[in-house]
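Hi R.,

Here's the chain you asked about this morning:
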Amino acid sequence: MCGYGRRATENDTVVVRGHLTYVGNTSMEVRVDTYREALDGTRTMINRAYVVMVALDEEGKTRPVPGLLTEGESARAEWEAAKKRNEFRRLRRKEGF
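And here is the predicted structure, written out as tokens:
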């Protein structure tokens, strides 16, 4: 069990780790994993989120971002899953969500 639904309590440390999973022309997706870490060092995952960020220039217009090199099978698998999430988000926007 990954620990989703658990919460941090007094004296726990909340650890947040971000990992770049996908890069488009002007946007990127970051996987953000949140953990609670007890005083004994035991770490338990409490949340995972995928955050999309868009690069803007000084005038607030979108600007290109550098590409992402995927190294290793797990990075490629994450990239493929992110492409599917990106397409799903595009479809939802077309539907008005």
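One quick note: The radius of gyration is 17 Å.

Cheers,
M.
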